[in-house]
Amino acid sequence: MDKYIKKEDIEKLYDENPNNLSSVFLSAGYNEDYVQKMFNSASKEVIVIRAMKILEKINEEKNLKDDDLYQIPKKYNVPESKFLKDDRNDMYIEMNNSISKKIGEILQNLYDYDSDEYVIGIHRTASDVNQIFSKGIIYKNLDLYDHVQLFSNFPFFLREIKYCESYKFSRGCFIIKIPKKDVKGLIENADPIFYKNKDGNIYLKPDFICAYVPVHNRNIGNIILNTENHDIYYNNTEFYYNEQITDVKKLS
């Protein structure tokens, strides 16, 4: 099927006989019932685009040996709700065996670490890595969600990292982990997540930035862990809660 990687070739194949494309989806792990349902309900454009993504993935994987690819454990193929079942299953199939084993295992460890107590997210960026590692992510307000996308589905997390370049010329993304109690909940249980730097700007504290993931042409590069010293606060530093907790300023 490699000769059909060009969109016009896939469209021609579809026009000649849509069922000729079924082998593409079956080879990617879709079951026959799902494929038949998709061909009966989805438009030509949707089917062609999905087939292209699968074939592009197959083409990329040729440069990696099977034992060098990361196989996502099936326990992660769990949707956040029943309405997302098909969508998240598509993501699981797409991302399975799509990145190196080494990188996949590091991302899995970051995702799993203290997952009961922490939320995980990404911040897409083209900014200087060292500056964000040391100072944090600059904010104009106190809404975490303005610059960080949170996840509760691992394949979705992997996919958004892989495609992060589509957002404002990003060259990669930072992985953020924040205690759940500090994102939403009661103020008496929460700690502030923002601070005002000496430059007068408000930042998400760098304590929560655990790694940077470079991405180029949808290829995920070697992950850089944040090992900066975060002893950057002073006696009169102003700290702020996430606005989902409260907008009250807390002085330290």
Order of helices and strands: HHHHHHEHEEHEHEEEEEEE
* Gross geometry: elongated
| SS element count, helices | 9
- Major beta sheet, specifics? 6 strands, antiparallel
Task: Summarize the structure in words.
The chain is α+β, with helices and mostly antiparallel strands and 252 residues long. The protein is built from 9 helices and 11 strands. It has helices at 7-16, 22-27, 32-41, 44-61, 85-95, 101-112, 129-135, 154-162, 180-183, and strands spanning 118-125, 137-139, 149-151, 172-179, 194-196, 202-204, 209-216, 219-220, 224-225, 238-240, 249-251. Strand 10 (238-240) and strand 11 (249-251) form a beta hairpin. Helix 1 packs across helix 4 (44-61). The longest helix has 18 residues, at 44-61. Residues 247-252 have low confidence and may be disordered.
Question: What are the main properties of this structure?
Answer:
6-stranded antiparallel sheet; 5-stranded antiparallel sheet; disordered C terminus
Show the helix and strand layout.
Layout: H1 7-16, H2 22-27, H3 32-41, H4 44-61, H5 85-95, H6 101-112, E1 118-125, H7 129-135, E2 137-139, E3 149-151, H8 154-162, E4 172-179, H9 180-183, E5 194-196, E6 202-204, E7 209-216, E8 219-220, E9 224-225, E10 238-240, E11 249-251
Antiparallel strand pairs: 1-3, 1-4, 2-6, 4-7, 5-6, 5-10, 7-8, 7-9, 10-11
Helix pairs in contact: 1-4, 5-8
